[in-house]
């Protein structure tokens, strides 16, 4: 196929037949993360110019889903899980367990290829950060964020997310 030799990386640049051939020939893995954790990470990395988390959230909500940065855009609009049949969905915080399974399925040695993850520490840190950051938001901001990420919260099992109803 000529698409194997092209520099294009976005599926939207290919026709439907090429897209179906590509997607059918690969194992598709989707890495997902709680949208509220994504917001926190983006804010802490300084990707927004806001002085507080609350004002950063206002900027995010003001951008709308169509003009949102990929750093905080809802996942369902980035990876189209309803259209692409992913073979695996790996949740942030469970990398060691899930990547070990993927490597074993591929017939690769887990011990030599899998980096040391500290999933438990990461989850604890984000729980604490979420609690702190969530307390900075008004009830209206919390409601708007839950609406902004409603499709992510429906598509993926983020049951412990602060944004879940």
Characterization of this structure:
The protein is mostly helical and about 160 residues long. The protein has one domain. It contains 9 helices and 2 strands, in the order αβαααβααααα. Strands 1-2 form a two-stranded parallel sheet.
Topology readout:
Elements: H1 16-25, E1 29-32, H2 35-44, H3 53-63, H4 75-79, E2 88-91, H5 95-105, H6 110-113, H7 119-135, H8 139-148, H9 150-155
Parallel strand pairs: 1-2
Helix pairs in contact: 3-8
Organism: Piprites chloris
Membrane topology: Single-pass type II membrane protein
EC number: 2.8.2.-
**Strand portion:** under 5%
Q: Estimate the helix proportion, in percent.
A: 40-55%
How many strand segments? 2
**What is the domain tally?**
1
Supply Rg.
18 Å
Q: What's the pLDDT, averaged over the residues?
A: 83
Q: Largest sheet, order of strands side by side? A: 1-2
Short account of what is shown:
With about 160 residues, this protein is mainly alpha-helical.
Key words describing this protein structure:
165 residues, 51% helix, two-stranded parallel ribbon
